[in-house]
Amino acid sequence: MKTGLETLVLPAGSAAAEAAARTLAAGGLVAFPTETVYGLGADAANATAVAHIYSAKGRPAFNPLIAHVPDLAAAQAIGRFDARALALAQAFWPGPLTLVVPKTEGCPVSDLATAGLDTVAIRIPAHPVAEAILRAFGGAVVAPSANISGHVSPTLAAHVESDLSGRIDLIVDGGPVAVGVESTIVGCFEAPMLLRPGGLSRERIEAVLGAPLARPPVEPESDDSQPLAPGMLASHYAPRANVRLRAQDVAPDEALLAFGPARLPGLEAAAAVMNLSPAADLDEAAANLFGYLRSLDAKAPKAIAVMAIPEEGLGEAINDRLRRAAVAR
Ligand code: TXA
Ligand code: MG
Prior knowledge:
The chain is an alpha/beta fold. It is built from nine helices and 14 strands.
């Protein structure tokens, strides 16, 4: 690990984009905002820089990373798009969708970043700061979420600082992110497959495909399994406190993560209460999810009780992250 680095924090702007591009070109690590969560970027073609991502995050295995590009032409230089992949790209890029497609011949993305697979995960983020950095750099940037492995993904530059300061070169602060959960990942296989629910709802993708998305054949269970999308590891988005799902009451030593109108037994006496969306808006709830989990966790409650959240729209991604957070460790 490259510890003892002086981590520079710059407000977003053209100077920051230039500094980010120079740092990436020199093999450094740059955290930057996307519309989903903050990413920790490295030059996709530089295997040493990619290796530093894994050590900085403390990622247990060389799980493959998502290559971020500024436009479709750059995406087609690294991945092969069939008609369905192209239809999804045209419908939703830039946006919170990652497509797993076969690599092109001569794909410059390092084997470490694709974990030796013959496919590559690609997305075009819908964020002006990410786009400016990608254009200034001029190559693909691989970027996992900019958190210590196993922690909650960062939705603010301050979250990145608290996890990775001293381990990375630069943080570009572009304020809070809009979506708040990671991108939806679709494997463009014979039958397009939902590898990870995320910031783009299943319903919208299926509307473009005109068919339901396939489910992965097995739900991976441990860090040792070789999942189709290793981000699906069972215990992943983990606060320190235990997480109790579908709560219908709250104990005095528990914090409550509420959703919609909250009138639960014990509410007044709870250690802390935050409401993901008093109006029960799932998009708003997704945007607040990781930040609120961090805030409640910081109060060191015995557990975080979470009210039920409907399994529709972005609720599928929210419930996926909460179930992983609730897995006993
Ligand atoms: O919203 C996001 O996707 C954020 C921002 C920074 O773009 N990034 C992110 O990256 O969530 P990360 O590393 O936390 O998740 C990447 C996921 C992993 O689950 C990995 O298994 C999957 O992408 N993945 C990458 N390449 C793959 C491939 N060739 N085949 C299948 N899954 C792949
Ligand atoms: Mg992650």
